[in-house]
């Protein structure tokens, strides 16, 4: 079962169980996935034959995880804004949506695991200065993509390079 099929199945179950929060959150997620598929289809339409567009424009699990990460980030930012604005009830709603969405993400790496990978990549690339952070991040991100928050990875990389 693909991730998209699982999300659609969970949406149907939540709909039948009348779980309003899950239904609305998963509906928004499915809409975001569909929008990304349309974007992909539009790009592919310039190079691929029309007959293959339906199949080629479907998102794989990795691309769907990317969409979920974007949605989680939006929820975190919105919750922070609501908290700063004194709107605790709306912040709580965003946090609940965030909790629902993170259930579809792969298990996230701990800070220690990220530090070990960062140290290994620093050794491999020979980067020792913050000026070369782009080269280091380029080598590092494929290893942690989908398993670690980019902001946390960036913070750890900067800490390690400043040692």
Query: How many distinct domains?
Result: 2
So, CATH architecture of the largest domain?
Answer: Orthogonal Bundle
Q: What is the CATH class designation of the largest domain?
A: Mainly Alpha
Mean pLDDT, as a whole number?
91
Report the C-alpha radius of gyration, rounded. 19 Å
Query: CATH topology of the largest domain, which one?
Result: Hypothetical Protein Yqey, Chain: A, domain1
Q: What is the number of helices?
A: 8
Low-confidence stretches: none
- The separation of the N and C termini measures 45 Å
Q: Quick one: how many beta strands?
A: 0
Overview of this protein structure:
The chain is mainly α and 163 residues long. It contains eight helices and no strands. The chain is 75% helix and 0% strand. The protein is globular. The protein has helices at 3-16, 20-44, 53-57, 61-84, 88-102, 111-125, 133-144, 150-161. Helix 1 packs antiparallel against helix 2 (20-44), helix 4 runs antiparallel to helix 5 (88-102) and helix 6 packs across helix 8 (150-161). The chain folds into two domains: 3-102, Uncharacterised protein YqeY/AIM41, N-terminal domain (Hypothetical Protein Yqey, Chain: A, domain1); 111-161, Arc Repressor Mutant, subunit A (Orthogonal Bundle). One of its GO terms (molecular function) is carbon-nitrogen ligase activity, with glutamine as amido-N-donor. Pfam families: YqeY. This is Aspartyl-tRNA amidotransferase.
């Amino acid at each position: 079962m693909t991730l998209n099929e699982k999300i659609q199945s969970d949406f149907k179950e939540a709909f039948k169980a009348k779980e309003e929060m899950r239904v609305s959150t998963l509906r928004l997620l499915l809409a975001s996935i569909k929008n990304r598929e349309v974007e992909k289809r539009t790009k592919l339409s310039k190079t691929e034959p029309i007959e293959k567009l339906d199949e080629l424009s479907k998102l794989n699990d990795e691309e769907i995880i990317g969409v979920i990460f974007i949605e989680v980030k939006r929820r975190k930012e919105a919750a922070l804004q609501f908290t700063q604005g004194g709107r605790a009830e709306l912040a709580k709603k965003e946090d609940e949506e965030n909790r629902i969405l993170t259930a579809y993400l792969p298990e996230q790496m701990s800070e220690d695991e990220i530090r070990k990978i960062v140290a290994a990549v620093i050794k491999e690339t020979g980067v020792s200065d913050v000026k070369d952070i782009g080269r280091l991040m380029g080598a590092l991100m494929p290893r942690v993509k989908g398993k670690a928050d980019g902001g946390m990875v960036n913070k750890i990389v900067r800490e390690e390079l400043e040692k």
